[in-house]
Amino acid sequence: MMKKALKKITLLLFIIIMAMLIFQFIVSNQVEDSPLPTKLHPTVAEAKDKLISQTKANGITIIITDGFRSIAEQDALFEQGRTTDGNIVTNVRGGDSYHNYGLAIDFALQLEDGSVIWDLEYDGNDNGKADWMEVVEIAKKLGFTWGGDWDNFRDYPHLQMDFDLSIRALKRGKRPDENTN
């Protein structure tokens, strides 16, 4: 009798645990009905503007070479160096980039003559530090993460704010609050 009761309790616990796991799976994989953004998130846009002004105050001029990018634009960049002319500049297809959700920017250094460079060692303000790394340092203080810190494909011009959201979560419709700072 005791064995039968123990088997029933074990079975009941198994069913409860399985139900909880299934519920958790369903909840974590729900797709929210959120449209794709069409511009930079306000917090990212504000930080971008601060980055430009703070680097300028340090004698460094930067330009933002890319910000929000549509999925079609991302796909075209992905094809570059693969099926179209040019160098490979990204390893992610449309929908797999934080640019597609308005959460990333790319930058470059702009010289006094207006030319644009992607030189990680250039010291145009003659302070003994690479301008590029000075920009990265300021960007990190503003809340950006830097693609140059990635282990795999290092993306030196790339800065992003992910608001603790993975690409998977973004693809499922999760979005950072517009008032997130």
Describe this structure in words.
It contains five helices and five strands, in the order H-H-E-H-E-E-H-E-E-H. The chain has 181 residues and is of the alpha+beta class. Strands 1, 2, 3, 4 and 5 form a five-stranded antiparallel β-sheet that branches. A hairpin with a 5-residue loop joins strand 2 (104-110) and strand 3. The mean pLDDT is 91.
Structural key phrases:
single chain, 181 residues, alpha+beta, five-stranded antiparallel beta sheet, 5 helices, 38% helix, elongated
**Between the first and last Cα atoms, what is the distance in angstroms?**
61 Å
**SSE pattern:** HHEHEEHEEH
Strand content: 5-15%
Structural class of the helix and strand makeup? Answer: alpha+beta
Q: What is the number of E strands? A: 5
Q: Low-confidence parts lasting 5 or more residues at pLDDT below 50?
A: none
Helical coverage, percent range? 25-40%
The coarse overall form would be: elongated
Largest sheet: 5 strands, antiparallel
Count every helix, treating DSSP H or I runs of 4 or more residues as helices: 5
Mean pLDDT: 91
Radius of gyration, taken over Cα atoms and rounded to an integer in Å: 23 Å
